[in-house]
Sequence to fold (477 residues):
Amino acid sequence: MTTHSEAHIIFYSFICFIIGVGLFFSRSMDKDVNQYFWAGLSKGGGMIVFSIFLLTLFNAMIIALPSLSLQSSNIVSVITVSIAIVIPFFFAKKIMTFIGNFLEISTRTTTVLLNILGLIFLCSVQLIVLVQITDFVIVQFFGSTQYSILVVMIVAAGIYTIAGGLNAVLYSNIVVGSFSLIGIVLIFFNTIFLKAPLFFSFSNTLQFGTEIFRASGITEPNLLTAAIGIMLIMFWMIWMGIGEAYGKVSIATRNTFQRKLFGVGSILFVIISGILFLSTVTIEAVPDPLMNTNTFMNYFIAVSFIGGLMGIFAMTFQMSGSIVAVRLYPYFKTKVEEEEQILVARLSTVFVVLLAIIYISVAKVSGYRTFIWYINFVAFFFTPIITSLLSTIVVKKGAAVGFMFGIVTGETYAVITLIGQQFEIHTSLFQSSSAYAFAVEIAAVTLFAGIVSAKASEMVVVQKMLSRMRISRSTTL
Fold:
């Protein structure tokens, strides 16, 4: 544990520096919706992709733990899991096709419902887990929770997000993301060469995480099942990160997105596989915080992690505000002024920031069960969306019907299976109670329902029935 005032000075100074960067790029944001919500769409996709890099690294560490907890010494599982995490980056063109199909065939009501589901995810499980992980890093460094630092960094991320929107978030994430990368490289270098005791190590963190998932009983012994489940989850994570921007940019920028996503995927594969490999082949004793928190390396790593988490907080705040102001608010009010839209986003962001502060106590009470909630939410409720979009690539004719029917069937099945899992009255068809196994099962049901309904919609009999229903409805009206 450290009580040194210089530690707090360093942390607060860094947080103020990040606020300054964000506010510097928040100028003239009061009336420019294009800049506030989409960063002017003039960045060639690179800054957005870099922010997705931060969010993917955060998600990857959570998602990978249950799959490795029964295979912690198997190098094959490390490589397989790493590939499953980054493979959506290598098929970026397919993600773009998913988004394009979604924008074309989804109805207004469907879009609103899916956005509400995404908003619930961002403002509940993701925000709680983010608070939980930030507190974990702070406790590792100081030896106890530092509520003041936790609250200040949440408020700081909210300040520049509210002021500058996506433009401020992206520029700030360049700074905090660079710090995070350097911090990870320092841990790599220390683990391989210096072997100095640090407050944080990959192996101890993995060991701590696997104990949580082993105790919960949701580990997945089948590597192939885990890999497919992880891939489905990561497709959603990337789609959520670039979905709004994709619909607003030019074809040239979309092509740039694809190339840069491929490049980031390659870098992520090296980093994630390196982290998992070093975590599984080295077992380090927990260092004594009283002896080891005064070194430059410890300070830099702690600050870099806090900065990276601030960047993810800011992304979560910005995405939540954008969903409310850009996707939901216009649904209830037909004519929306630009200044009004920005105001709605800022008020929504203020609400989410306050939620994050409240979640500090919630995270303490709930403990590390929040990680289980996080993985289950994504695996159960977002898998039908991704799989339904996949059906639009497999089946061209009747894609809209297949998409709608697939989502309805998949989400219904997801609710039933989640209840069965929680009350231990149902395991997946793979004889497993892991979120990965259920994700694969839900995907299979959704895909089958989507393809069958799409094919059926093209039958003459069904076409006549649909035609009669339309005529009957128009007569009634």
About this structure: Residues 283-294, 472-477 have pLDDT under 50 and may be disordered. The two ends are 71 Å apart (CA to CA). The first helix runs from residue 5 to 24.
